[in-house]
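Minutes, project check-in
Item: structure for the 580-residue chain
Input as provided by the requester:
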Amino acid sequence: MTDDRPHPDPVSARPGEPAGERAARRPRSTDPLELGFTPRKPVPWLAPFLLVSTGIRTLLAMLFGAYLDKRELQNSLEARIERQVGPDGGLWLDYVADLGDGFNATYSVAYLLAQPELEVDGHRLPRAQTLVMGGDQVYPSAAFEAYEDRCKGPYQAALPATPPERPTLFAVPGNHDWYDGLTAFLRLFVRSRDRHFGGWGTGQSRSYFAVELPGNWWLLGLDDQSGSYLDDPQLAYFDTVAGKLGPQHRVILAVPAPTWVKAVDHPTAYDSIDYFIRTIIAPTGAQVRLLISGDLHHYARYAGPDRQLITCGSGGAYLYPTHKLPERIQVPPKDTLARRASLSRPYDLKARYPDAARSRRYGWGILPRLPLRNPGFTTLLGTLHTLLMLAMAGVATNRAGTSEQRLFSVPLVLMLGVTLLGAAFFAKPPSAGGKRHARHWILGVTHGLAQVALGAAGTWLWLQLPFSDWPWPLPVVAAAVVYGPISGLVASQLVAAYLLIAGTFGVNLNELFAGQGIEDSKAFLRMRIDPDGSLTIYPVAVDRVARDWQVNPDQTATASWLIPKTPLTPRLAEPPITLT
């Protein structure tokens, strides 16, 4: 008789590997064929094709997001409520968000999360038994290859096999996870077989989750499909969870975006969270003591009378500035259009990382970094300025009645329109949401006029050179070879100067930092829940991520595949915060 039962793979019968479980083969070099994935550079957010494709994805998500919404279909999936507790009756819990970008930053954070213990400013912080990913697990889109190279691969390399404490992973989907309708996210984090993500086991059965924690704490993760309504199956699921809550319970709410900050400019942004707290949590008597989110790529903490609001989106994506954060916010905002809302309360900014002064200094880096990090964007500017110059030169030389006049005079009107409108819309991209204010139009049009003036100056200079007298089509060839690269570099510096000025008015702050792709100043949260119910939050910061990696000589199954050549030096972004 044939025995069809699965047999342990003999490869796994090595010291340190779980019986019956095969760990991934350890790499012998940093070659992608050895690693099983390709370490990627940071996403060049100002690359022309990426700008177009991201805009199209955002537009499609806005137009067809409701038709691609898979949350209703999840009603057929098991509605599990999980429980997490450590061997001592307490729990160590990690939170990381916005992580799937360039390898150096993403893996630096993953490496720290995976170590058995961290020594941070005199605090010994053991590896967490529970890891929460707070959204945007991959950039720029939710393609399978992007998840493998920018998220799953680095985390597999950081913790290749399951350690004895068998840590569990829960994930909240962000807007980038939603670009494919949540297909890849569900296949990675919500599955009925092969439930692991590197050395972490996946714990959720839907794109949202509820986890009972020690000391009368609960962790709830919401999926609001990029700011839409909470779906009925999700509300029904949390109604069931609410049946287990009482006045003695305290809640950690993990949400996709820090809408408490975004509500300063968009008063309706916080409405969904407020509705959830007001209709699901408040009737039970339980208290939401902590809201955590990613989406904005920095660390910031607002404190109110009985609640902490923490943004920690520093898991790998480009740094987002902190120097323009409001010092005080009202949550919910007093000018929300919601007919019903919770009592508005003030929250003060207690900490941010990096600090405001360092954030401002980072802003000045746009001047050298814009052309270096975004060569495609510089090439695009050079192409546009070359076309603008040729159009201006054609009109300036008065080729009336010739075919060249007809070729150049019409494009001149077109190029002037493209330059002015492009600069105006750049000041407030349609995908950014919210209303345009006078400052957007003034700054955008001024930037457009400055680009036109640069084109006029370039045209005057070009006409002083002998190239314009060469026989056709040599002037066009010379313009493409000589004028294009130089004008692109000069125009990129004009864009950089505009971004610096606009940033002081709170305009194009995202582009000011996205154009730099700053990998440093990363952070994650390590939290400790004691058996008595006290919660301590350690905001772990890394001022400089590692750039050079080598194969780890430690061949233990759970040891990270790669280690930094220069050791990482984590520190606390602020002193530990304790909630009781």
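Outcome recorded: The first helix runs from residue 32 to 35.
No further action items on this chain.
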